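INTERNAL AUDIT FORM
Audit reference: QA-55
Scope: verify that the stored structure record matches its stored sequence.
Auditor: D.O.
Record contents follow.
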Amino acid sequence: MANKKRSKLKIIPLGGLGEIGKNMTVMEYENDIIVIDCGLSFPDEDMLGVDLVIPDMTYLEENFDRIRGFVITHGHEDHIGALPYALQKFSVPVYGSKFTLALIAHKMEEHHIKNADLRCVAAGDTVQLGCFKVEFIKVGHSIAGALALAVTTPVGVLIHTGDFKVDYTPIDNEPIDIAAFARYGSKGVLALMMDSTNAELAGSTPSETEIGKTFEMVFDEAEGRVIVASFASNVYRIQQVADVAIRHGRVICFQGRSMVMIARIAMQLGYLQIPEESIVEIEKLNKYAPNEICVLTTGSQGESMSGLFRMANANHKLNIGKGDTVVISASAIPGNERAVGKVINQLFRRGAYVVYDRLADVHVSGHARRDELKLMFRLTKPKYFIPVHGEARHLYHNAKLAEEMGMDENHVFVMETGNVLELYARGGKLAGTVTSGSVLVDGSGVGDIGSSVLRERRILSEEGMFSIVIAIKTSTGELAAEPQIISRGFVYTKDSEELMEEAKAVAMKLTPQFVLCERSEWGAVKNNIKSAIKGYLFNKTGRAPVIMPIFVEVE
């Protein structure tokens, strides 16, 4: 007989709750584990120098022999971005749609990971992973190949929507499979895990086709080049722009590394239908008149290395100027508003006409609003509800929606990253936590940047550095020369000579301690000098730079 303590289904989010991004959820029953998504998030403003943030996978490392596979809902970075780091540790299969796996395969190449076990599935397919049977269900989203999951477990069926919207007129003419959700609802769904991103918003998210009218208007009125900045992964948006541009007699030029890469993959797989003769490299654009050109580029979020940013700042082969029309076909992700605003202002300074979300309908979300969430509730009729994918307020609003739909509040579980939810046929409860959190990626370093390093970086950025170099005679321990001051980001040395001289004097008063102590005690003397200079500088300037005493032994 199975151990009762382990004969419960465990749901353990390792990311994606209380935050946007870093989506990763563990499902566990006895000796079997599957992992849904493996995403990253981008660093906050105070994470200076950090490139990426990925989930803490300690729990998976402790239970790696029970992992039966990763199941990926779609190919956005917040759902696949941490896979290269996971697959360096866990040699397990990864399941996803054709387009999702193509994006993952590209990431594996970038990280020099060979022999990744990528297994392609399509909507309607079913795979058996240990005791879990997973069916993939077609949903709409702002990327091709998005899938929801119906996971049949020993205690019941769980529906995980992934990121989704209900679009009855999608660009690919393949709408969400409402019948599949209804089929599971009629049989009985133990728990629904549903996207919370737009749970604050009433009504329904507009169809992707709605913004086609805006593009038609823009191209009708544009007299010069048209530059459209969008998320590279939104091939539906790219298709709409390309279709309108070609109808208006324009050629297409892709710019930005991710835009070029994803467009190439999407065309190879048939997700993008653009005639080859309509695609032109940037070097050949001079053969066309301005009113015959359309450029699709990255940079809708104001990223400093993106194509649009460099075009706006005259640091690109294709610089934007008077007569150009620029469409920023995206809404600013929270935290990016200032960066996007700066790019828009710079584009206007250069003489371009800019169309953005405050002026026209240039973007629609890929996430369901409240009416669509209610529809999913009615279709699946779950016994328990677990809001996923969103900050605290999004999860809260989704939970309240469940209660409005008649669900007992005791059957709604608003979880935090690291929580363990135990479900069984007759009940469910939160039962402790596991190790969780964020791992910071800085260059090739993974997890070697901690709070102390970030604190030092923040101080350096705000207060600067004050270094004092002291030369000590090896034979006697006496001062060999006058200390030298190096100031970076603190004060301008030439305008602060008195401050520098007094700081030197503070250090020189303490250097005789070297003569009187053993070499093993030099660290304590360095700390005394550091403390004394720190106090002096703060009293004089009100600032607290990073103090770095450097000791050099000379003959």
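Auditor finding: record pair retrieved intact. The mean pLDDT is 87.
Action required: none
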